[in-house]
Design goal:
It comes from Ketogulonicigenium vulgare (strain WSH-001). InterPro entries: Flag_FlgI (IPR001782). One of its GO terms (molecular function) is structural molecule activity. The chain is α+β, with helices and mostly antiparallel strands and 369 residues long. It is built from six helices and 26 strands. The protein has three domains: 104 residues, no CATH class; 137 residues, no CATH class; 68 residues. Helix content is 20%, strand content 35%. The strands form nine sheets. Strands 3-4-5-11-7-6 form a six-stranded antiparallel barrel. Helix 1 crosses helix 5.
Amino acid sequence: MRAILLAACAAMALVTVPLQAAPTRLKDLVEFDGVRGNDLVGYGLVVGLNGTGDGIRNAPFTEEIMANVLERLGVNITGEQFRPRNVAAVMVTARLPPFARAGSPMDVTVSAIGDASSLLGGTLVMTPLNAADGEIYAVAQGTIIAGGFSAEAQAARVTQGVPTAGVIPAGATIEREVDFDFRTLSNVRLALRTPDFTTAARIETAVNQTFGRAVAVMQDAGTVIVSIAQTQASSPAHAMSQIENILVEPEIRARVVVDQRSGTIVIGEDVRISRVAVSQGRLTVRVEESPMVVQPNPFSNGETVVVPQSTAALSVDPGTGGMAEVNTGTSLSELVAGMNALGVAPHDMIDILKSIRAAGALHAEFIVY
């Protein structure tokens, strides 16, 4: 095994070329302070369903909101008993984009909260959408596009997708703008999506080289502060249009990501292992029970007895035995290539990687899902 593994590793080393992270636009690496969306939520009513709505007895809140809607429209239903199956109570969610202006449309998501079986073909009645401050920022209404279907008979039912949730493209109209004036900013913070000191230092250097002066200062691994006034741009918006297109080569941490359910292994190029010996084998234990029934002789006073008869066997797969030594500096991709040449299964490979990490020889962040 050692000879085969080392030979496979050597062959892999001949074709392995160290890859560098490609230069990436700054807008794809950081979030700009103040440029963010806001979550909106509302409680509404969907009508026009083909008998797939809420059962009023199981969802009394649907009857309450329906009565409120009808009363606002001038219909007096006090004391009336109604049990329609074509309405459903829903939660409406949306995300107010940054710099959204009054009158602009946006998409909304509609989800049933009662026992409705499908929202297909339903229409959302005018629903106000509130932000975390309690203010109304948009109003939603329109026909729902559901992502599935459901068919039901007396003794069978089939469902595909999720028919109890759907979207309304451009189904909301923005009625209120977020009180934020980008022109008044004197400094802008660049928040790295993946904090790293090396990447932050490269961003600082790249921004300063673009403007020809020290306008950016690295605060920590996740923040770089840019002085808008020192960029001498005509406005903060013009300065940001230059900053977001600056190319920076991000520093990638050494990581090994493992998905145990599917057997998927993703290995970063900078992963390295120390000198370690690896042994992997399969132990199989088989136990069989074959009880034997012993009958007494005819006309005797004996009893029928069940005699246990067991067979136990142990076997080891000879193709995976032995020890393989991996030298210092060998990349993990070369080790995996060697194990692939030996026919090691993905789940066995995951166990080997865990053991190497437990031994302290794996120099990378190990993430398991």
